[in-house]
Amino acid sequence: HFGNDGKLYVAVGDHQTPENAPLLTSPFGKILRLNADGTIPTDNPFYSQTTGINQAIYAIGLRNPFTFAVDPNTGRIFVNDVGYDSWEEVNQLVAGGNFGWPSCEGPQGTGTGACTSASFLYPLHAYDHSQGSAITGGVFYRGNQFPSHYNGDYFFADYASGWIRFLDSSNQVSGGNNPATAFRTASYPVDLRVGPDGALYYLSIWTGRVLKIEHASGNRNPTAVLNAAPTAGTAPLAVT
Q1: Separation CA 174–CA 165 (nearest Å)
Q2: Does the structure show a pLDDT above 50 at 236?
Q3: Which residues have a Cβ under 8 Å from the Cβ of 218 and sit 6 or more positions away?
Q4: Which of 11, 32, 59, 186 has its CA 20 to 30 A from that of 3?
Q5: Measured distance CA(234)–CA(237) in Å, rounded
Q6: Quick check: helix, strand or coil at residue 188?
């Protein structure tokens, strides 16, 4: 995704070699940052310490940053890192940050293999594999279809357990394992978007559908009201 700074951010997994993630000699297990023309910004945090494509490294220590999202208002970037044995993470991207993989995963101080190093950045939110095991999809809600208290909330999904949750805008503090709020079930979600109509859309991989969640009248939570299987020539948000 392009950030608010006009730079292109690229999430790259560890290539099934965890040792890649903290190395400045490998682009794997990283977030990379590029100029719009494909060149590498000279203000990248490791630019002077690296050569070639590795000069694009912006943050390290990630396992599988399957999805991430840019807040169009603040420019913050939240990265969803799919875990290995125990934890799924939502991390706030920081220039030069080290998110700890493969030394540890999950919140600070959580038993065997706990993240305890002061050099690591800890998740905004993490959940263990009793709740889900594949964090996918992420988007900041910036629209006018949902009630105003949803503005700035960060929605994310778990593909394996089939749900969507959100971090309230007041629960997005760096360094703490902020609580998330249940939102609704979802069928095999892998991506989330807010449409120009202000509704929340999610992509269901196994059913091959895009589903629309809009706000219901009264005091009910938002519910999925439309879905459609895309056909050739159909725009992604055309779900009538």
Answers
A1: 18
A2: no
A3: none
A4: 186
A5: 8
A6: coil
